[in-house]
Design brief:
two-stranded antiparallel ribbon; six-stranded antiparallel beta sheet; 6 helices; alpha+beta
């Protein structure tokens, strides 16, 4: 098989420049022994055993390793697709194509067999100087290879879990309502755009044309703002329904649950204090409505 990238990057890359005069900055590679600047074809690989002992490793050494996956993709097993922990799937995906006419028949056979099951092939392959784990599955008329992470490369998330929060059943129900309102059957139904990249393109264009960038649509949310979770959920449900063209009558804001009453104080409150509490309750009801 041959591997071809299944995705392409549209990220905008920057060059490092001298801030004072805009001159580009270049990195030059020198040998620490003789001080000479090196060309790319003069640079090889080496493994440092100790500070003064580096073993040179050539491309021929890597190509002739006594390892089955050095020249082929080795299928280890077939497993159900739903049994795969998605954390193990890496960012890189490749289209695996048949390398020559001899490989065409087994390539097609593997794709047809996998296409009639709910299983994927777990495979091992060598790429960029190390052996990797991958998943092979049919995608259209081709085979798609997902690069995977080894078990020891996946972190245990238990240490990252937040402390338990006191959630009410009403908050969970509103979260479920938001989930339902924003649900779609397929990802390709969504018109997703890279807003950050678009804004960056506008900044670059504005700088080149000596003008101010056009304002970006949407409201800037202050960072670290303490919000009323229930009110935020209600607002999100209303916005989601409005975006889908649903009528506003289904997006009514329900009254917030009243806070639990504190234990009565030993001393009876004065009339002035009681008046303040009554006013506060009225204000709370007014905001809730």
């Amino acid at each position: 098989m041959k591997l071809e990238p299944a995705t392409e990057s549209h990220s905008i890359s920057f060059r490092q420049i001298h801030v004072e005069d805009g001159g580009p900055i270049r990195y030059r590679k020198y040998c620490e022994i003789d001080g000479q600047e090196l060309r790319q074809d003069e640079i090889g690989k080496g493994y440092e055993i100790s500070k003064d002992n580096v073993i040179p490793i050539t491309d021929t050494d890597l190509a002739e390793m006594p390892l089955p996956t050095a020249k082929a993709i080795e299928i280890v097993a077939f497993v159900p697709w739903e049994s795969i922990d998605r954390r193990h799937i890496g960012e890189s995906s490749y289209y695996a194509s048949a390398d020559g006419q001899v490989a065409a028949k087994p390539y097609t056979l593997l794709g047809q067999a996998l296409g009639r099951t709910e299983k994927v092939a777990v495979a091992k392959f060598a790429l960029r100087g190390r052996e990797r784990l991958g998943l092979l599955r049919p995608y259209g008329d081709a085979l798609l290879l997902h690069a995977m992470r080894w078990d020891d490369e996946v972190r245990d998330p238990s240490e990252l879990a937040p402390e338990e929060s006191d959630l009410s059943e009403q908050e969970i129900e509103r979260a479920l309502a938001l989930l339902e309102t924003m649900s779609v059957e397929r990802l390709d139904e969504l018109e997703l755009t890279d807003d950050y990249r678009d804004a960056l393109v506008e900044v670059i264009a504005a700088k080149s044309e000596h003008r101010q960038p056009k304002p970006v649509a949407g409201e800037e949310q202050p960072a670290g703002q303490v919000v009323d979770l229930m009110a935020a959920l209600e607002e999100s449900v209303a916005k989601a329904k409005e975006a889908r063209g649903e009528t506003g009558e289904h997006a009514t804001v329900h009254e917030m649950p009243k806070p639990k009453k504190k234990a009565a104080a030993k001393k009876a409150p004065t009339k002035k204090t009681a008046a303040k509490k009554t006013t506060a309750k009225k204000a709370t009801k007014k905001r809730a409505s």
